[in-house]
Amino acid sequence: MAAESVPVIEIRDLHKSYGTLEVLKGVDLIAPRGHVVSLIGSSGSGKSTLLRCCNLLEDSQQGEILFEGEPVIWRGTGLHRHPADRQQVVRIRTNLAMVFQQFNLWAHMTVLQNVMEAPLTVLKQNREEVEARARTLLDKVGIGDKADVYPAQMSGGQQQRAAIARALCMEPRALLFDEPTSALDPELEQEVVRVIRALAEEGRTMLLVTHDMRLAADLSDHVVFLHEGRIAEEGPPEALFGNPRTERLRGFLSATVA
Question: In this structure, what CATH number is given to the domain that contains residue 36?
Answer without folding.
Answer: 3.40.50.300
